């Protein structure tokens, strides 16, 4: 996490480190410390099915794709 890992970037099974860490009763990590507004926004776009492909700059589209388990 200290080196820039994204807590909200799902794997192909749609598991996000954020949820796995939050569900661990032994967790002592403050998750808000490692969450950025940019990541939260990308996750919200994907979660709510907001169309973005071809609508936003390519670099931003690539970033949002990182937060989309179906991509």
How are the secondary structure elements laid out?
Layout lengths: L16 H7 L13 H11 L10 H9 L5
Please describe what this structure looks like.
The chain is mainly alpha-helical and 71 residues long. The protein has one domain. It contains three helices and no strands. The radius of gyration is 13 Å and the shape is elongated. The mean pLDDT is 88.
What key phrases describe this protein's structure?
mainly alpha; 71 residues; Protein fem-1-like protein c
Integer average pLDDT:
88
Order of helices and strands: HHH
Helix proportion: 25-40%
Strand fraction: under 5%
Instruction: State the end-to-end CA separation.
Output: 23 Å
Low-confidence stretches: none
Global morphology: elongated
Write down the Rg: 13 Å
Number of helices: 3
Major beta-sheet overview: none
Number of strands: 0
Number of domains: 1
Coarse structural class: mainly alpha
Protein name: Protein fem-1-like protein c
Organism: Triatoma infestans (Assassin bug)
């Amino acid at each position: 996490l200290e080196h820039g890992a994204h807590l909200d970037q799902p794997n192909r099974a749609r598991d996000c480190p954020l949820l796995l860490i939050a569900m661990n009763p032994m967790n002592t990590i403050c998750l808000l410390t490692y969450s950025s507004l940019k990541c939260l926004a990308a996750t919200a776009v994907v979660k709510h099915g907001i169309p973005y492909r071809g609508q936003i700059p390519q670099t931003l589209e690539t970033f949002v794709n990182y937060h989309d388990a179906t991509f």
